[in-house]
Design a protein that fits this description.
- With 233 residues, the protein is of the alpha/beta class.
- It folds into 2 domains: 1-34, no CATH class; 35-232, Rossmann fold, CATH 3.40.50.
- Helices cover 33% and strands 15% of the residues.
- α4 packs across α6.
- It starts with a helix and ends in a 6-residue tail after the last strand.
- The mean pLDDT is 91.
- Bound molecules: zinc ion (2 copies).
- Residues 16, 18-19, 21, 23, 28, 30-31 line the site of one zinc ion.
């Protein structure tokens, strides 16, 4: 007699988002164990790992504005790179509760008992229509659910911007500058956790943090799955 779980697995086998093997779960034990986690000290503001914790570093001193802190789960390497690709495409939003809970574990000690609002870097509505969902929103809901925090849409993307990955360093800054605005007054006087998938140059997160601060947010903490160290160069 075949049980329900086995039947579901036969009908809808779950491949591991990291290695693509049939694992019956979103992430196989081997991929879970080989996540390039950032476990040690890092720059508080931009999340770059260092031998000692620092308030800000040479990477972020001049260019990371409006963003007060960054929490990153891991470095942007395999298998996390494949997992994030899966999250963004192929209806991989099903991975969001698991990934949100994983980064929430890193975020929790930084909250110091506060109850920030959780929000996300929004897609342009045209892109969201074609994609079908906003992966950063799904991830934010995973973070909020894990920590019992309210998830609120606080921002909208006012311009249809090019993918940051297609641009050079200076192009990335101007591409997102002024591309976001606050959509309601809920950020006023609040601490905000801003969720996205990857922190590369940080310009997108800074542009969002700027709009949140303009709307009265008192502190903005970026919460990302991956810190792409290429952006730190
Ligand atoms: Zn795997
Ligand atoms: Zn830094």
């Amino acid at each position: 007699m075949i049980n329900y779980g086995t039947a579901m697995e036969l009908l809808f086998p779950t491949r591991c988002a990291g290695c693509g093997e049939y694992a019956g779960r979103p992430l196989c034990p081997a991929c879970n164990a080989s996540m390039p986690l950032i476990g040690g000290p890092a720059c508080i503001r931009c999340g770059t790992p260092y031998p000692h914790e620092v308030e800000e570093c040479q990477v972020c001193r001049d260019r990371i504005k409006h963003l007060d802190a960054t929490v990153a789960l891991a470095v942007y390497e395999e298998p996390l790179r494949s997992v994030i690709h899966k999250l963004k495409y192929d209806n991989g939003w099903r991975l969001a509760p698991l990934l949100g809970a994983m980064v929430a574990v890193r975020l929790a000690p930084r909250l110091a008992g506060k109850q920030p609002l959780v929000t996300f870097v929004p897609m342009h509505r045209r892109k969201r229509r074609t994609r079908g969902y906003d992966h950063a929103e799904k991830l934010a809901r995973g973070v909020g659910q894990a920590l019992g925090l309210a998830v609120v849409t606080l921002l909208e993307r006012t311009r249809y911007t090019q993918a940051q990955s297609a641009l050079c360093h200076d192009g990335r800054r101007s591409n997102v500058e002024g591309a976001f605005r606050a959509v309601n007054g809920e950020a006023q006087g609040r601490e905000v956790v801003l969720v996205d998938d990857v922190f590369t140059t940080g310009y997108t997160l800074c542009a969002c943090a700027r709009a949140l601060k303009a709307a009265g947010a008192v502190k903005v903490t970026a919460c990302v799955l991956a810190r792409d160290m290429l952006g730190a160069a």
